[in-house]
Design goal:
By secondary structure, the chain is α/β, with parallel strands linked by helices. It has five helices and eleven strands. Strands 3-1-2-4-5-6-9 form a seven-stranded mixed sheet. It binds iron/sulfur cluster (SF4).
Length: 193
């Protein structure tokens, strides 16, 4: 199934963040990852049937587009977004057709694995930047948008350069209306998003 009615298993959505790419960005964590990188900082995102919500691509897109005036773009992370490639493809298509918001995808798959799989390749077709490769705890870096130094930037448009990414804050703490704290960014403590 494609298009706005495509279901999407989500772990969390942070409407605005300054620590997940250039500018203010909506961050969307997909639920489910089978790649099993040792030392993964966010194991709560691994079960495909975790405690996140299942929503439609159209619902999520409408929420993001309603706040587009305050956003530079969207960062899709996880979990593993490319284990739900139809949802990612449909969401990116919707966003790019209706706005100038940029799209960054953080994935554990390598560029070769993405290009070899038509569904994954289609999922990143509208992305401006894809950060690729398994997290390797021995090569921990936590700078820019790379958790470890083996991960690679794959610029698919000219929108962002490595210099744009070097200034991304390493940690961000958000306080919700109910006083809930959310830690995010490459230096977020274990277990937080
Ligand atoms: S791909 Fe990401 S979420 Fe999945 S195990 Fe590796 S670091 Fe964790």
């Amino acid at each position: 199934m494609n298009g706005p009615k495509t279901p999407w298993r989500l772990h969390a959505v942070l409407p605005r963040s300054a620590a997940n790419g250039p500018g203010i960005r909506c961050v969307i964590w997909s639920q489910g990852c089978s790649l099993g990188c040792p030392g993964c900082f966010n194991p709560g995102t691994h079960p495909a049937g975790g405690d996140g919500a299942v929503r439609t691509v159209g619902e999520v897109a409408e929420e993001v587009l309603a706040d587009a005036a305050h956003l530079e773009g969207v960062t899709l992370t996880g979990g593993e977004p490319l284990e739900q490639p139809a949802a990612i493809a449909a969401f990116c298509a919707e966003l790019t057709a209706r706005s100038d918001l940029s799209v960054i995808v953080l994935t554990g798959f390598t560029r070769r694995e993405i290009e070899a799989d038509p569904a994954r390749a289609a999922a990143v077709a509208d992305a401006d930047l894809v950060v690729t490769g398994r997290y390797n705890a021995r090569l921990r870096l936590a700078r820019g948008l790379r958790g470890s130094s083996n991960k690679e930037y794959w610029a698919r448009t000219g929108r962002y350069t490595a210099a744009d990414l070097s200034g991304v804050p390493e940690l961000e703490i958000s306080v919700a209306d109910d006083a809930t704290l959310t830690f995010t960014g490459m230096h977020a403590p274990e277990g937080d998003i």
